Amino acid sequence: MTDSNLRLPAEWEPQAAVLIAWPHAGTDWAERLDAVESTYVALAAAVTRFQALIIVVADGALQQHVVSKLQDAGADLARIRFVQLPYDDTWLRDSGPITLRDGNRFQLTDFRFTGWGGKFGAEQDDALIRGLVDAGVFGSAVHKRIDWALEGGGIESDGHGTILTTWRCLVQRHPEQSREEMSAILRDSLHAERVLWLDYGYLEGDDTDAHIDTLARFAPGDRIVFQACSDAADVHHDELQRMGDELAALRTVDGKPYTLHPLPWAEPVIDEGRRLAASYANYLIVNGAVLVPAYGDAVDDHAARVIGEAHPGRTVVQVPCRPLIWQNGSLHCITMQLPAGLI
Predict the structure, then answer these.
(1) 3-state secondary structure of 36
(2) Biological process GO terms, please (predicted)?
(3) Which of 8, 13, 69, 184 is the most buried (most CB within 10 A)?
(4) How far apart are CA 314 and CA 304, in angstroms?
(5) Contact between 81 and 54 (Cβ < 8 Å)
(6) What is the pLDDT of residue 80?
(7) Contact 12, 339 (CB under 8 A)
(8) Residue 284 contacts residue 216 (beta carbons within 8 Å)
(9) Cβ(321)–Cβ(304) under 8 Å?
(10) What's the rounded Cα separation, in Å, for the pair 314 and 14?
């Protein structure tokens, strides 16, 4: 494979499958397993309406349990493949492969996963891509390990050589490196032309250090969907206003401003005195559809409309995600799309 033609596809390009790992009693979901499984069941049923789904499970007993759950929910089991591997937790956006492509050739880019800067144990998650490769999931794709910490939720690609990311996250992972040094690493490892940085934007209850996929997302036609905050009394208001100003100042490669789609702000979700990060920006694009988080909030439908407008021609499916934010992530965080032709 000649590296010069590799690129990181946009999420809205054709996909082969979505990859997830199922929660179980040995993960951090144990306390609220029933609630979070309801979200996973809804997600699996939604994905299999449109394309294939690969589910990583810890063992055969869990696989049988999941099959039973999905049968009851009417998921299309013919579109599901199970792979048995060990894992620490289920945030596959961050431990799964970042797949570059050159036509029908693929590179599984395997960055070092540190449990979001050493916050959590991650040894098994860091070995997940190698396990999937050894299980034959990805055929003849090249597996390239890169000894530099990066999570898939920390980057957005427009499919044409532009990467969007946040300074707050990457400076936490690599405090010894300058922005210029990190930009060069991102351009080289992701075969990108340019890197756009946001200095503002965060969510309380988010332990990823401001992953871009909780804040701002590329959409087709030079659009950006972003999480806004309309409540001037909220602690996030000024920061997200500044982020909105940054996004308005960004320019496409042609020198034009992006078309911005601000998302509504959900009422604060407080759990045992802790505020949870309910971001609508954490949605998942699949073939012919966009799966949108719903939190049981009055603005759920408004958020779904905004996302649908930014992704015209796709069916909008709301997935109940309130159980996910207990562990500080949402829909996009638990999934990783795999480009068409990879499987």
Answers:
(1) helix
(2) putrescine biosynthetic process
(3) 8
(4) 12
(5) yes
(6) 98
(7) no
(8) no
(9) no
(10) 13
Question: What average pLDDT does range 268-283 have in this prediction?
Answer: 94
Query: What is the structure's pLDDT at 94?
Result: 98
| Domains along the chain with CATH numbers | 3-339 (3.75.10.10)
Q: Is the pLDDT of residue 2 over 90?
A: no
Integer Cα distance of 52 and 286 in angstroms: 10
Please tell me the pTM assigned to this model. Answer: 0.97
**Max CA separation in the chain (angstroms):** 55
- Mapping DSSP to helix (H, G, I), strand (E, B) and coil, where does residue 233 land? coil
Per-residue model confidence as pLDDT tens digits over 157-170: 999 999 999 999 99
pLDDT for position 205: 87
- Cβ count within 10 A of residue 116: 23
The per-residue pLDDT for 245 is 98
Q: Of the candidates 221, 266, 222, which has an alpha carbon nearest to the alpha carbon of residue 240?
A: 266
Which ranges constitute the DSSP H helices of the chain? 33-47, 60-73, 92-95, 115-118, 123-126, 128-134, 167-173, 179-190, 237-249, 300-310
How large is the average pLDDT for residues 188-205?
97
Mean pLDDT (whole number) for 121-135: 97
| Token pair recorded at residue 14 | 């054709």
Contacts of 182 (CB under 8 A, 6+ apart): 170, 174, 195
Q: How far is the C-alpha of 88 from the C-alpha of 98, rounded, in Å?
A: 19
